[in-house]
Amino acid sequence: MCAFYHLSSPDSSPTAPFDDSQEHYFKKYLLGVLIKHELELLQKSPHETLPNLGGPFDLQDKYADSSTPFLRYLFESIVVPFPFLTNSRGELWLKLQLFMEEWAKIDEAGNNGIEVEELRRRKRLKEKGERAMVFMYSLAIKTVEQRAQERAMAENSALTEDSLAQMQLGTPAVSADLYGAAQGLASVIHGVSINVVGINVVREKRHVREHDHAEFLIHSTLADGKEYLVARRHSHFRRLYLSLREKYPQYEFPFPPARCSAKTTKAGWEKDRTSLRGYIHSVARLAPEVVSSELFVTFLTKDVVPLTPDMTRDMQVRTALDEQRMEQQAKFDKEVGKKVEELDQHLKQVKADLLQPGGVSRLFSAFGKYENVNDLPPLYQTVFEWGCMNFASTLYHVFTASDNATLNFTQMKRTHTLMPYRTMWGILKISNPMAVMKGILDLFLAQPFGSRSLMQRIISVNIHEEISEYKKDVTLLEELIGDKGLCDKIRNYVHASKDVVSTIVSNDGAYDIRDLGLILDIVRSGGIQPPLSAAQIKLVSDSKEQLDQAQDKRDHRTQQLHADFLSAELSDQTDDDHSESEVSSVASSVSEDQRPKYPQLYHLSRKHLHRQRGSGENEQGEHSVIRQLQQLLVTHLRIRDKEQMLGLVFQGVTGEIFKELISIFYEPLVKVYRSANVADSLMDAKDFVDELIKIVEQADQDEDDTTESQGGKQSVATLYLDLVKKHLPSFYKFVHSVHKQDDGLFRDLLEWIESIISFMRTGYARARINYKTEEELHATIDLDGFIRSNVDKAQWEVLQQEAEALRLYFGEVKERKREKVRNIAGLDRASQSSEAVKFFHAQERERERVARELKGIGMQQEDVDELELLNYETHNDFHDGDDGEEDEQEKPTAPPVPVIDTLQDSFVKLIDRALFQSARE
C-alpha cells in the first residue's frame, strides 16, 4: 500500500478537462519547456547559475528559491550524494566551477568556427539530455489518476514468473535464425546492400620483378534491385574518402583503415577485406545523400568486372569464412540462451531474497565468505558461468568476427604496450596508501623536461594522429593553391577575434560550411590580415561564378542520369544500353571537364605539383581555387577544434580537476587495496591481455590456414571461452578479497543506484514513510484541480484543443522515429526482402513484450513510448548523420499553445509544493 501526497482539488465538478493521454502530454510539455530553459541558463551563464544548483555551490542556502528548481532538486538528491563525492573536501566543486567558466570562454571564442553541422550535433546531444531529464521527472511526478492506475496494476496485475526472470536478466536470448537475419541486414543501408565479397589478385611487372596486388571485389545491390560487381584497390578507398570529404565538408568522414601488416600476405588481405567492408558501411551510414551521391554510386558501379572461375572460388572461400564467424557467434548466443533458461529457475528465489531486508548485503557477503569460485552456491556459479560465456562471446565478436576487428585489436595492443605494468606493480606494493596515490599520479601526469606526460600520450595518441593528417592536408592544399596571401587570410580568419568575425558571420557564429559565399566574404574582409589585391579577390570571385555555372550543368545532367538509372520501368534493352554507358557518363560528369582537380592532385607528390603548375596542366585552376580554399578552411577548423580540446584537457584547472577526481575515487578504495592484493591482480590482468593477444593472432593464423585449405578447423571461438574460464579464478580471487575488506563502500553505491530508481518510482530519492499509516509516500499532483484553479472555465475548450494538438504532435514524432528504425533496418524503398521483414517483425514482437512488462511494473503507455525513443537515440548515435538538414525539414513543428504557456509559473509552484519543498525540509 502507498499514500499519495498531493494537493486537493477545490472543485468537485465531475467533468475533467483532459483525458489520460492529454493529461500526460500536457505535463510532459510543461516539464520539457521548463527544463530546457534551466539548461539554457546553465549553458549561457554558468557563473550565475551554479549557485542556484545548491549543495556545495550554495552552502548558506542563499539561493533556496532557485531559478533552476528542477536542476537543483536532481543535483542535491542524486549528484551530491554520490558515495565517492561525499568525501570531497570542497576543492572539486570550486575547480569544477572554474572549469565551466573556462569552457564557456572557449565555446564563446570558438563561435567564429562552428559550422551548422557541428551546431546540429551539439543540439542533438543537448536534446538527448533534456529528454532524459523530462522522462525521469515524468515518471517521478504522477497525477492522482496515474497513481490510482499504478496502484490498481500493482494489486491486480502481478507479473508472471517468466516475465520477472527475463526482466531481471536484462536482455533475452536471441535465436540463431534471428541473429543471422540481423547480421545479414547489417549491410543494407538506406536501401543499398554493400558487401566486400572477395579478393582478386592482380600480378604486375615493374622494372625487374613481378608484384601481386589485391583488388577487393565489391558486390552491391541498389534500391532499384540492380546488382554490380566491381574491383577496387586499397588506394581507391582512400581516394573515395578524399573526394567525399571535399564534396561534403559538413560531414566528418572516418579515415580509411591502414593496410594490415600480417605475417602472410593472404592473411593480411583477408583482414583488409573485412576492415574495408566495415569502413564502407560506416561511410554509407553517415547520410542518405552520401549513399545516393554521384561519387558513391560511381564507386560501387563503374567498371563492372566479369566473374571468372578464380573469383568464384575465392568468393566461396570468403563466404565460408564469414559464415564460420556468424556460426560461432550464433553458437555463443545459443549457449548463453541455455544459461538464461537455467537462470530462470532460480530468479524467483533470488528476487525474493533481494527484496527481503538485508538481501543485497547477503548477496555481496557471499563474495566475501567463499574464497573459491567453485565453493559458491550453485545459483551464483551458474551466474558466473553465464557471465564467462557472455564475456567470451563479446571478445570473439570485437577482436575476430566484426569487420572492425583489426582496428579494435590494433588499438588494444597499442594501449597494452604503453601501459607500464611492472612500474605500477612496484608502486602498488608500497605500504603507504598516500604514497601509492602520489606515485600513480606522478607516473601518469609527470612531464619530465616539459615533455608530454604518459597520460597525455595514452589519451591523445589518436587525436594527434588526426591533427597530423590534417596538417599534411594543409601543406598540400597551400602548395596547390599557390597563393600565400589567400592561405594566410583563411588561417587568420579561423583564429580571429569574435568582434572581427561578427562582421562576416551572423546567426551567433553559425554558418553553412557548404556555402562558398563565406569564402568570398572572408577574402573581401578588410579586418582580417593580410590585405589582398583586387586581382586576388577577382580570382576567387570568378572561381565561384564559374563553379556555380559548372555545378548547375552537372546537377541538371545528374538528375537526368540518376532518374534513368533508378527507373525500374526501363526495358531490358535499355538496361543493357545503360549498364555501361550511363555509368561511364556519371563518372565522366564528375571527373573530366567538371570534377574539381583537388581529389586527384591530392595524391600526387609535391614535385609533381610544382611541375604540373608550371606546365599549365591545371586547366581548371581558376574555378577550383575556391573549392580548395573551402577545404583549407575546413581543415584549419578541424585542427583548431582538436587543439583547443587538448589544451582544455591538459592545461590549467582541468589538470587539477583530473587529479582531484583521482584522489576522490581512489581514497575510498585505498582502504581495501592492500588486503585485496591489487598489485598481483594488476599482473593477472596483464597476463590475461598477453594471452588474449596471442589468441587473436592465433585466430588470424587459423583463418589464413582455412583460406589456404578451403576447409574448416577447430573453432577459434572456444579459445576465447577457455581463456576466460582459465582466468576466472584469478578474477574471483580479486572480487573475494575486495568484498572481504569492504567497509560499506559497495553497499553505499548500491543504495545510491536504488535512490535513482526510487526517485523515478516515487519522486523521492530516499523512501519516505507516513508513520501513522506506515505507507510509502509518492509525489503526486492533482492536475485536474490545478487546471480548475488556474484556468477560467471559458478557456477549457481552447485548453483541450491545445492539449490534443500536443498529443498529436508527440504521436507524430514517435511514428517518425519508428519509420526511421524501419529505414535503418533496411525496410526502406526496394529492400523489403523476406529476411528484412522477418527481422523487423521479430523486433516489433520483442518491443511489445517489453512494453507489456514495463506496464506491469506501473509504467503508463506514454512512458513506455518515451523510453523507446530514448533507447533509440542512445543506441543509434552512429546514424547522427541522418539527423541533419533533412531531419530538420521533415521534423514536425510543435503547435503553438499560448494558453498552456501561461501556466508555466503556476506549474513550477505546483511541483514545488508537491516535491521540491521536501528537499528544503
Automatic annotation (TrEMBL):
GO terms for molecular function: phosphatidylinositol binding. PANTHER family: PX DOMAIN-CONTAINING PROTEIN YPR097W. InterPro entries: LEC1-like (IPR047168), LEC1-like_C (IPR024554), PX-associated (IPR024555), PX_dom (IPR001683), PX_dom_sf (IPR036871). This is PX domain-containing protein. Residues 194-307 form the PX domain. Pfam families: DUF3818 (PF12825), PX (PF00787), PXB (PF12828). Transmembrane segments: none annotated. SMART domains: PX. Residues 570-594, 875-899 are annotated as: Disordered. Residues 582-591 have a biased composition (Low complexity). The lineage of its organism: Eukaryota, Fungi, Fungi incertae sedis, Mucoromycota, Mortierellomycotina. It comes from Mortierella alpina (Oleaginous fungus).
